[in-house]
Amino acid sequence: MNKEAIIKAGKIASEIKIWIKPQIKKGDKLLDIATKIEDKIFELGGFPAFPVNLSINEQAAHYTPTYNDEKLAEGLLKVDFGVHIDGFIADTAFSVDLENNETNKQLIEASEKALLNVEKNISSELTLGETGKIIEDTIKSCGFNPVANLSGHSLEEFDLHAGISIPNVDNKSKTKFGNGHYAIEPFATNGNGKIHDGEKGNIFMWISDRQTRNPNARKILEFIKYTFGPMPFASRWIIEEFGKLAIISLRQLEQEGILHHYAILTEEKGKLVSQAENTFLINNDEVIVTTK
Ligand code: CO
Prior knowledge:
Elements (H helix, E strand, L loop, with lengths): L2 H18 L9 H14 L3 E10 L2 E3 L14 E10 L2 E10 L4 H20 L6 H14 L3 E2 L5 E3 L10 E2 L13 E5 L2 E3 L5 E12 L8 H14 L4 E2 H8 L3 H10 L3 E9 L5 E3 L2 E6 L2 E4 L3
Antiparallel strand pairs: 1-3, 2-12, 3-4, 5-9, 6-7, 6-8, 8-14, 9-13, 10-11, 10-12, 14-15
Helix pairs in contact: 1-2, 3-4, 5-7
The chain binds cobalt (II) ion.
């Protein structure tokens, strides 16, 4: 673990969060917001750990704009982005209400409060079950439900979901955090707390060493491996490099099982979802919220 890189990635993420949040207005193009954040990550010396997620209302996560996206910011918008330095990741998210809507505001407060209550109690000795209980109790006390089937995750070098899940409900797990690097992300909803895979979005990830025979797809795959390695990427990043036809190769690589194509995570009944997320570095008695 490279503590220096972890701290630096966190600082970049935190700086961008503070910078972008007041700029987001209803009617802004999602594509412009995503590009602004991603450009800033490079400007500050980082690399996007995954495409900026801009998910609206019932979409909980995993929507990123296409290369020609016309969609505008509205409703309850979740902004989730990651920064890495040499593979050491900071993962953070916030929600904004673009409607001056009471329910949106309360949902945002619920997920933020849950994250803050985790921060107040977290240590290497805290169990994952206790963490889930803190999140669940806080969100329920605000009159909403936590999303039970989304969770936080441990982070490792070039690995966004490194094996340990941090539940948003009390799953009774007795596993302690111990020393490690974690993204914790409470989601609150005015629905029943279940998310399902919606339509396929615009985020992909390289998952198999298999080779493809198509020369165009092969060229694109080499670029993906070299540029992103095992980290998620946006279809628009590929189109920027290879043009619009690259979308055909992405589809082919997906069909051949070489790329994973992420679905947009959506609340089952179309209810609203809010999210708050920070990254934590735990080392014995020391806990650093790297993205704060
Ligand atoms: Co995350």
